[in-house]
Amino acid sequence: MSSIINILFTIYYYMIIVYILMSWLPNLRENFIGELLGKLVEPFLTPFRKIIPPLFGTIDISPIIAIVVLRFAVGGLHSIVALIFG
């Protein structure tokens, strides 16, 4: 069970990273993959963007905070799974 959680976390982590990198290239989020990643990643990133304003008006650090929170959530999920399944 723990390996499934790790695999899903790793996939979602890389989805966030790719989505962030796509923002650096013009119109890359306009294609099918960009739109698909947006639909999967934006619901998770949006609450962080509402709380954390961009630095200097352009630098968005909310994805970094979102990844850290995701890492803590995965750690908590590992603890819960370990308590349930031993």
Name its key features:
single chain; 86 residues; mainly alpha; 3 helices; 0% strand; globular; membrane
Written description of the protein model:
76% of the residues lie in helices and 0% in strands. It has helices at residues 2-22, 32-51, 62-85. With 86 residues, it is mainly α. The mean pLDDT is 90. Helix 2 (32-51) packs across helix 3. It has 3 helices and no strands. The protein is globular. It has one domain.
Describe the secondary-structure layout.
Layout: H1 2-22, H2 32-51, H3 62-85
Helix pairs in contact: 1-2, 1-3, 2-3
- How is the main sheet built? none
Query: What is the N-to-C succession of helices and strands?
Result: HHH
Task: Measure the end-to-end span.
Answer: 11 Å
Shape annotation:
globular
Domain unit count: 1
Structural class: mainly alpha
- Compute the number of strand runs: 0
Q: What amount of the residues lies in strands?
A: under 5%
What is the radius of gyration?
15 Å
> What's the tally of helices?
3
Uncertain regions spanning at least 5 consecutive residues: none
